[in-house]
Structures are given as structure tokens and as C-alpha cells.
Design a protein that fits this description.
This protein is of the alpha/beta class. The chain has a single domain, classed as Alpha-Beta Barrel (TIM Barrel). The protein contains 10 helices and 13 strands. It has an 8-stranded parallel barrel, surrounded by 5 helices. A 3-stranded antiparallel sheet has the order 6-8-7, with no helix packed on it. Helix 1 packs parallel to helix 9, helix 3 packs across helix 4 and helix 7 packs antiparallel against helix 10. The structure holds NADP nicotinamide-adenine-dinucleotide phosphate.
């Protein structure tokens, strides 16, 4: 495993991070509900591969992902860098409507009291007294950034969090957070959608991240499974499942994706790697301070994904991969 500092923080994080949206199961990742024992085996596999960085969020399974992680972390909390999120909550205490699902209404609230309650709820669910990293899940224009930054900085001073970041944001949001008068430590990372099928938002972001010494953390680098190979295109998903609304689920995209896999196949053969490992290795070439966040529920995926760090791609190979997808690339999706 390779480790890098998380932006301007003092956290040394594995370049490959564990994403646990799927671990939350429920109607969103409807093919599988994980148990505490499975979550523990997943963390065992991560530890074996040197993956020390875990990402979760309160809304993943409406508390389920954090709760399962809390159980799996019992007795080994300090072995991992634990990151969760704030702003999206289902407490019914105001904020902007974000979505309704399974009888819950989720609001977005980036004001100080809401962030503090998010942190207390997350700490309780995960059975810990500090978070290594806290991400504002959806940057929001309705509430003052100064108040959000003030609260995040206070949480750092109080030892409740060690670093903080932004998600579903724009480069201008990072500039605004970094220039808030309350800023001391500042933003350490942004977590944004980024894949070879949708690299544009990330490319706009990299220079601004670089300017502020901020890590860029990918999500969706495997397009929720659609970049793992042609077999995935045969799957069907429940209407509530998050994968039923990604463009790649629609049959009209399948021919294009199959052409891409056919084009990449000889490169995979030459590198001795899977399509998943190939696109992960590609992502790592895109920005020096890239944090590769990959969703995993199956323990065997920890080793499979860790192997992407050993794949070296030449500029010609990178260009070849990008040429193969050019005709089907899409602008960033709003997740
Ligand atoms: N900030 C945000 O708004 C936001 C939005 C979306 C996601 N995220 C975070 O980013 C993480 C990653 O995104 P994601 O989970 O949506 O999508 P993803 O990482 O693109 O894809 C995850 C899917 O790929 C499968 N997979 C992983 N490694 C594989 C391998 N080596 N071979 C074959 N299949 C493999 C997983 O299977 P198994 O599950 O069966 O192991 C899972 O179904 C999330 O878990 C979450 O932590 C954040």
C-alpha cells in the first residue's frame, strides 16, 4: 500500500480508501444487506492490504453504514482513519429538502448547530469520541459559509475532528471556504465524482486543489460497477436502487461500453489486470494528491483494488484509454 498526507492535515492515509455506501444496503443498494460480521471481515481484508482510510456518511442506509462500521471497529478504532459526513440529516429540524425515501425526509443543513448534531449522532453510532475527517456532504448556497467554517474549525480545536472537506462542490466553493475569515486549518480534501467516463469536473478542480494543497478524493471511479466489465451490463436493479438511475444502466449505452471494453482488453491482458484495476490505475495518473475511494462490500475486492497501485501506465497507454471512451463520455452526474 502507498500512503500520502491528506491535503494540509497531518493524517497519513492509504491512497486506496474503502467506500461504504453499499454497506448501508437498504433500498439504495438493494441486492445485499450486510451484517456486522461481514463488515468486520471487510475491515480485516482492508487491514491486510494496508487500507487504513474508511469513508462513510450518516445517510448511507440511514445510519446503517455507520452503525455496522462502529461494530466492526470495536477494539481497533485507532487502526483506521475514519471519515464521515455532515449536512444531510433526517432529524426533521429544518434545512433544505434534499430527498424523501423509505419514509424518511432528508434535509441539507450546513449551519453550525446541525453540523454539531451530525457529529454527535455519528460519534454515537460509531462508538468513538473523535472523527479523523468530516466532509460537508452537499455544499449548500442557502446558509453562510462563514458559519460552517467557524463550526468546522471549532470542532478541530475541540478534538472532535482532525480534518475536514467538501463534497458535491465546485472549485469556487473551495475558494470561498479557503478565504473565509474563520479559516485556520482549512479544507484538506474534496470528494467528487470522477471516472474516466466523466473526468471533466475533476479536471476543472485539480488546479484549485493544487493551489490550496488539497487532496482530491474520487467517488464513482468504477461507475458503481459499470466499469468492471461487460458482465455487469447484464444485471438488473430494483427501481429504488441507485444503480437504476445511472446512464450506463440504459441499453442504448451498452454497445458503446462494450466497444470500450473490447478496445481495452489487450491492454488488460498486457498488464495482467482487470478492467476495474485498469480504470483505477488511470485515475491515479490524473492528479498527484489523488485519493482513490472505491466502494466495496466483498472482502476480496480489497486485494483486487489494492493491486491497481502496481500498474504503471505510459502516457501513450493513458491516451489510448481516453481515446477509446471519448465518444461516450458524459458531463458530471448529479448524485
Ligand atoms: N460524496 C458523495 O456524494 C458520494 C456519492 C457516491 C459515493 N460516495 C462514496 O464513494 C464510494 C465509492 O462510490 P460507489 O460505491 O458509489 O461506487 P464505485 O466505487 O464506483 O463502485 C462500487 C461497486 O464496485 C464494485 N467493486 C469494487 N471493487 C471491485 C472490483 N475490484 N471488481 C469488481 N467490482 C468491484 C463494488 O462491489 P461490492 O460492493 O460487491 O464489493 C460496488 O458494487 C461510496 O461507497 C461512498 O463512500 C460519495
Amino acid at each position: 500500500m502507498k500512503y500520502k498526507k491528506l491535503g494540509n492535515s497531518d493524517l497519513m492515509v492509504s491512497v486506496l480508501a474503502l467506500g461504504t455506501w453499499g454497506l448501508g444496503g437498504g433500498s439504495v443498494w438493494s441486492d445485499k444487506d450486510s451484517t456486522a460480521a461481514e463488515a468486520a471481515r471487510l475491515l480485516d481484508a482492508c487491514k491486510e492490504q494496508g487500507i487504513n482510510y474508511i469513508d462513510t456518511a450518516p445517510v448511507y442506509g440511514t445510519g446503517a453504514s455507520e452503525t455496522l462500521l462502529g461494530k466492526a471497529l470495536e477494539g481497533r478504532r485507532h487502526d483506521f482513519i475514519l471519515q464521515t459526513k455532515c449536512s444531510l440529516n433526517w432529524r426533521g429540524e429544518g434545512g433544505n429538502f434534499h430527498y424523501s425515501r423509505d419514509g424518511y425526509t432528508v434535509n441539507n443543513d450546513t449551519r453550525g448547530p446541525a453540523i454539531r448534531r451530525d457529529v454527535e449522532d455519528a460519534l454515537r453510532r460509531m462508538g468513538t469520541d473523535y472523527l479523523d475527517s468530516l466532509i460537508v456532504h452537499y455544499v449548500c448556497k442557502s446558509f453562510p459559509v462563514a458559519e460552517t467554517v467557524d463550526t468546522l474549525e471549532a470542532l478541530v480545536r475541540e478534538g472532535k475532528i482532525r480534518a475536514y472537506g467538501l463534497s458535491n462542490s465546485q472549485p469556487a466553493d473551495l475558494e470561498e471556504y479557503m478565504s473565509a475569515p474563520e479559516k485556520k486549518q482549512g479544507v484538506s480534501l474534496v470528494q467528487e465524482f470522477f471516472s474516466i467516463l466523466s473526468p471533466f469536473h475533476g479536471r476543472d478542480y485539480f488546479p484549485v486543489c493544487q493551489k490550496h494543497n488539497v487532496s482530491f478524493q474520487t467517488y464513482g471511479v468504477l461507475e458503481e460497477g459499470f466499469l468492471t466489465g461487460p458482465a455487469f451490463l447484464e444485471k438488473t436493479f430494483a427501481k429504488t436502487d441507485i444503480r437504476s438511475r445511472i446512464p450506463w444502466v440504459q441499453p442504448e449505452y451498452h454497445a458503446g461500453l462494450r466497444r470500450v471494453f473490447a478496445a481495452w482488453q489487450p491492454l488488460c491482458a498486457a498488464k495482467g489486470c482487470s478492467f476495474a484495476q485498469l480504470v483505477e490505475a488511470w485515475a491515479l495518473t490524473q492528479y498527484e494528491q489523488m485519493s482513490l475511494l472505491v466502494g466495496m462490500r466483498r472482502p476480496e475486492h480489497a486485494a483486487a483494488n489494492a493491486a491497481c497501485l502496481d500498474i504503471a501506465l505510459t502516457p501513450e497507454e493513458i491516451g489510448f484509454m481516453e481515446d477509446a471512451v471519448r465518444e461516450i463520455q458524459v458531463p458530471v452526474l448529479d448524485k
